[in-house]
Amino acid sequence: MDALPTTTTAAVLDRDGLQALIEALAARGFRVLGPLVRDEAIVYDEIAGVADLPAGWTDRQGPGQYRLERRDDQALFGFAAAPQSWKRFLHPPVETLWRVRQGEGGLLFSTAAEATPRYAFLGVRACDLHAIAIQDRVLCEGDYRDDAYARRRRGAFIVALNCSEAGDTCFCVSMGSGPKAAGAFDLALTELLDERRHEFLVEVGSAAGGEVLASLPQRAALDADRAAAAAVVERTAGRMGRQLDTAGLQALLQDNPEHPRWDEVAERCLSCANCTMVCPTCFCTTVEDHSDLAGGSAERVRLWDSCFTLDFSYIHGGSVRQTDKGRYRQWMTHKLSTWFDQFGSSGCVGCGRCITWCPVGIDITEEAAAIRATPHVQGGSHGES
Amino acid sequence: MDSRPRLAVWKFASCDGCQLSLLDCEDELLSLAEAVEIAYFAEASSAMEGGPYDLSLVEGSITTAHDAERIREVRRQSKFLVTIGACATAGGIQALRNFADVNEYISVVYASPQYIETLATSTPIAAHVPVDFELRGCPINKVQLLEVISAFLAGRKPSIPTYSVCIECKRRGNLCVMVQGTPCLGPVTQAGCGALCPGCRRGCYGCYGPMETPDTAMLARQWSAMGVAPRDIRRAFHTFNAWAPAFREEGEAHDD
């Protein structure tokens, strides 16, 4: 990502201009990924043009519920967070780290040969933009840098999206992460749709973004266009489906490890790990080593892992977190509280995926509110129970 | 003398599908035959050699007094015994007899019931002899089977996860059919199949049995809220792994 220009420039594209943007990115060697309808949902995958986008579709999300529905207009981005975030492209679920085989002179190691893909993401919402920044901090900074992630990240072109739709499980306003895209993007779109027009205000966030935008058929952005875009964001901010009161939350959770609500949520939690898989900031992985039948070669594969499995906390003598209570408390406390201690920010961006995609609809905002409602019921230690 | 480990494959009450998973390893079959001496595999070869064996793969459940005796002999002849498939690890679909009167079944199914000698129950191998490793599935996954055999040959622990199907499902990029309205056993079922059915937009049938921490009661509550009748909840839990304790108890908690 190039340095931000000192002044934000902007232009307005129509649908043809958006098509030209997708083509311009493809022509520059990017694999363009954006929203499309598949399996009765709006997912992120490879797109060839505007025709692939989910025109006239939206989603209805709720705790443990997702339904694809028709809109009464032809909006291209009129839906909320996709089932999985961009994490699966930047931090893929399965990745071979290296292979080894017996050579004449000893063991011969080779790293995965695949070239680093150059992705262009079309429609990265503010929450997901924040999530990418959080994963950058976790995976690229500090002593244990993930070089493959860093390469994919460096090569990515990000077209952000200022949300025009808030889902029933969205709460980015509470987390200070949206719905206005802020941070490291190349271009940012706002969909402007009414009876008279269907256009996109495009703001420039990097030199690379400016270069691409300059090559597209466009018209200059007027103050009225900027005002319309600001109104879209303001309207979305007022329609959040959920709220999470974050005041003092960090201490609240750390001070209430024995709150009875943890037992109550443990009754409902399946430990299935769906929340961690769909969370755009959850980064945990495990490695598996596989040897072949002849014993001549082996490989090390890295896979998405979850703090909801027994193996995750297995040390000599057994798993540290044996109970649903211990595992759910660990996940939620890390996400909303100890993440600050570790990485300097919240681990939650308010995308609501953990609420929608929990098979039994456990709602992190409701759990936090329940602990806030009756804090310090009993103090106690952080011991496992 | 042949120094390769000696492999034996045994069949008890079963459909042979799990043994076929071994024969399905077409690309790896020659490597396997090089790495081990296939000493006993009646499904594949009529050359059946005596024990002892280094590794025995056991398919099927115990449903007769004769088999209850035979598995003890297999155990005596085997250094390492791995059970493969839902029949061997949980009693299989034939364990549905455990919930009913087997004599009534016999009288309905067979023209000459007097020739049938059977136990009242179908039980997993581990209920009869110590088992070193259980590989789940109906049928087992051949990639997992090769992993278990390769791990045995290398003297390492096999990488066979015991967490939910959901983890595999999400890694694969499937949409959650449960959240989209289709009842699914994935959250309480052990991974291993590669989330086959959700990948085809169907709910999980629980072929790999209960996962490590199965909260079947909560899942059943959610199914109920989705409009699934008690009888159908019972039937969903009582299939290939009906006699696995978590599935057995949850099924029994719902009226037929």
From TrEMBL, chain A:
GO terms for molecular function: iron-sulfur cluster binding; metal ion binding. InterPro entries: 4Fe4S_Fe-S-bd, 4Fe4S_Fe_S_CS, Helical_ferredxn. This is 4Fe-4S dicluster protein. It comes from Azotobacter chroococcum. The lineage of its organism: Bacteria, Pseudomonadati, Pseudomonadota, Gammaproteobacteria, Pseudomonadales. Keywords: Iron, Iron-sulfur, Metal-binding. The keyword Membrane does not apply. Residues 258-290, 339-367 form the 4Fe-4S ferredoxin-type domain.
From TrEMBL, chain B:
It holds the Pfam family Oxidored_q6. Its cofactor is [3Fe-4S] cluster. Residues 15-151 form the NADH:ubiquinone oxidoreductase-like 20kDa subunit domain. Keywords: 3Fe-4S, Iron, Iron-sulfur, Metal-binding, Oxidoreductase. Gene3D superfamilies: NADH:ubiquinone oxidoreductase-like, 20kDa subunit. The keyword Metal-binding applies. GO terms for molecular function: 3 iron, 4 sulfur cluster binding; oxidoreductase activity. It comes from the Bacteria. The keyword Iron-sulfur applies. This is Coenzyme F420-reducing hydrogenase gamma subunit.
